[in-house]
Design a protein that fits this description.
4 helices; elongated
């Protein structure tokens, strides 16, 4: 019985050793393949991003210029709508029992500043 147990343990160790060698050689081959691919990419001509960046810059400049050109000063009705929207928001928050806690936020900021 003892010989059978020793043979079983020895055979498991041999199998594990062979599997370990196989994994080592497979991983080392994959590493060599990856290294050769990375070297090929590093030696290839790089993509010239200059025209792409210039085009994007011009497009963004056009968008900003169009936005600034179409700005208008607020009219009285804009101020009225803003005030009405604020009242509706406050009423809705009261109906939902949501009370903004500005005092606690200010206190925590003051404590943080004083703590430094």
């Amino acid at each position: 019985m003892s010989d059978f147990l020793i043979f079983g343990v020895l055979s498991v160790q041999i199998v594990m050793f062979v599997v370990g060698l196989w994994a080592f050689f497979t991983l080392s081959q994959n590493l060599r393949d990856s290294e050769s691919r990375l070297n090929a990419v590093a030696e290839s001509p790089t993509l010239d991003l200059g025209p792409i960046v210039a085009t994007l810059t011009e497009t963004m400049e056009d968008i900003v210029a169009d936005t600034l050109a179409n700005l208008e000063p607020p009219r009285a009705i804009d101020h009225v709508f803003g005030a009405v929207a604020q009242m509706i928001q406050a009423r809705t928050m009261n109906m939902m029992n949501v009370v903004p806690s500005l005092g606690e936020a200010v206190e925590s900021v003051v404590e943080t500043i004083q703590g430094d």
